[in-house]
Amino acid sequence: MSETTAFDLVVIGSGPGGYVCAIKAAQLGLKVAVVEKRKTYGGTCLNVGCIPSKALLHASEMFEEAGHSFADLGIEVTPALNLPRMLEHKDKTVKSNVDGIGFLFKKNKIEGIIGTGRIKAPGTVEVVAEDGATRALAAKSIVIATGSEVAGIPGLAVEFDGQVVVSSDHAIALPKVPETMVVVGGGVIGLELGSVWSRLGAKVTVVEYLDKVLGPMDSEVSTAFQKLLAKQGFDFKLGAKVTGIARDGDKASVTFEPAKGGEPETLSADVVLVATGRRPYTQGLGLEEAGVALDKAGRVEIDAHYKTNVDGIYAIGDVVKGPMLAHKAEDEGVALAEILAGQAGHVNYGVIPSVVYTQPEVASVGVTEDELKASGVAYKVGKFPFMANGRARSMLSTDGFVKILADKETDRVLGVHVLGRGAGELIAEAAVLMEFGGSSEDLARTCHAHPTLSEAMREAAFATFAKPIHI
């Protein structure tokens, strides 16, 4: 083992939480190192998650539009799928992003170390390189930012072969378009990747344990969204508990039964994508030996300042409580870096948006109507359909609506939900409004450019505190 190198901060994991924490800490004057077990930086998000999936979602969306809606715009084309070229676009997108992290490390004088990191004791991280060489890092503070991994199906052993029975890691690189695909799990990952292969020609069936897709999403939005996916060719088996997945030659079968009891059913498909969520990645980090406490869900327990029960050891991102979202991890990374530098870092967990990058997109921030009903809060609702929006009509993107929930007495906006084209961009306006405690009237009285999709946000706000103008 080489001589120990001393740092103010050592971050284990270079995903969105880890690399952002490292960069912010370095900007604030700390000497920082980042340990990454992959050969490239960026974690799951940049390598096999957010970034490659969005590249495929966009490319497949363009293919779908070229074959269908282009003709209505006066553009006559007959698209031909070049899947290798599409996957090449995905890979180039990934490379440019992960290379960008390396550039930012150098720019901010952060030492990036490729190898497997393990906490030997509070204040010490051991790194084992691929060739077996070890290195010790001394750190005033250690941040666990190791993210999450594919969870599989609770109580059911699933053997991923990467070809027929696949996880999301494999589903971004299928060598050919399957004729049939069963997606186990009706959450964000399953519906996004199911959309990719559906647009490219696969017949997709979603098997979901709950009685709705996008479980935590507002029920009205979820129901409308499912209907739009059904129009696109998706089949749904809801309230279904998967009891078995087996490969049979070049195909695989999924056996499921009604979650409330009943006769089992079996579906066969060329590809079965298991997308039932993710679990914190904590194994092999030396947490038990260091005395770091985990909760019942296997997450690292932290206090309000991201500190574990062991002095000098902190954790952020997917490995701790809260939604497994890259931007949530990034915000925690900034907040923790500020705290370690003696500042007052903070994350407002009530204003973290979530987005489903299908077409149309689904975006949400704040509480759902279901949650307001359950809590007994008096509220009011304003809605506006994209069908009545001029820009949406011009783009042939009239599916969906904006829904705003506000406190009945104060008019303070409590939640905003958007189903429609560009919803992931539109939701930022709602997040800013809510961050400053704004009301629906504040939003409605803010001038919006015309014609834009954002006018639907304003109209929904008018509908919340008064009446909409254009419907």
From TrEMBL:
Pfam family, one: Pyr_redox_dim
MF (Gene Ontology): dihydrolipoyl dehydrogenase (NADH) activity
Cofactors, names only: FAD
InterPro entries named among the record's database cross-references: Class-I_Pyr_Nuc-Dis_Oxidored, FAD/NAD-bd_sf, FAD/NAD-binding_dom, FAD/NAD-linked_Rdtase_dimer_sf, Lipoamide_DH, Pyr_nuc-diS_OxRdtase, Pyr_nucl-diS_OxRdtase_dimer, Pyr_OxRdtase_I_AS
UniProt domain Pyridine nucleotide-disulphide oxidoreductase dimerisation: residue ranges: 352-461
Residue intervals of the FAD/NAD(P)-binding domain: 7-333
Gene3D superfamilies cross-referenced by the UniProt entry: 3.30.390.30, FAD/NAD(P)-binding domain
Cofactor, how bound (note): Binds 1 FAD per subunit.
Keywords, sorted A to Z: Disulfide bond, FAD, Flavoprotein, NAD, Oxidoreductase, Redox-active center
Entry's EC annotation: 1.8.1.4
SUPFAM superfamilies attached to this UniProt entry: FAD/NAD(P)-binding domain, FAD/NAD-linked reductases, dimerisation (C-terminal) domain
Superkingdom, natural source: Bacteria
Top enzyme category: oxidoreductase
Annotated catalysed reactions: N(6)-[(R)-dihydrolipoyl]-L-lysyl-[protein] + NAD(+) = N(6)-[(R)-lipoyl]-L-lysyl-[protein] + NADH + H(+)
Family in the record: Belongs to the class-I pyridine nucleotide-disulfide oxidoreductase family.
Remarks, miscellaneous: The active site is a redox-active disulfide bond.
PANTHER family noted in UniProt: DIHYDROLIPOYL DEHYDROGENASE, MITOCHONDRIAL (PTHR22912:SF151), DISULFIDE OXIDOREDUCTASE (PTHR22912)
Protein name per Swiss-Prot or TrEMBL: Dihydrolipoyl dehydrogenase
Protein source organism: Aureimonas populi
Encoding gene, per UniProt annotation: lpdA
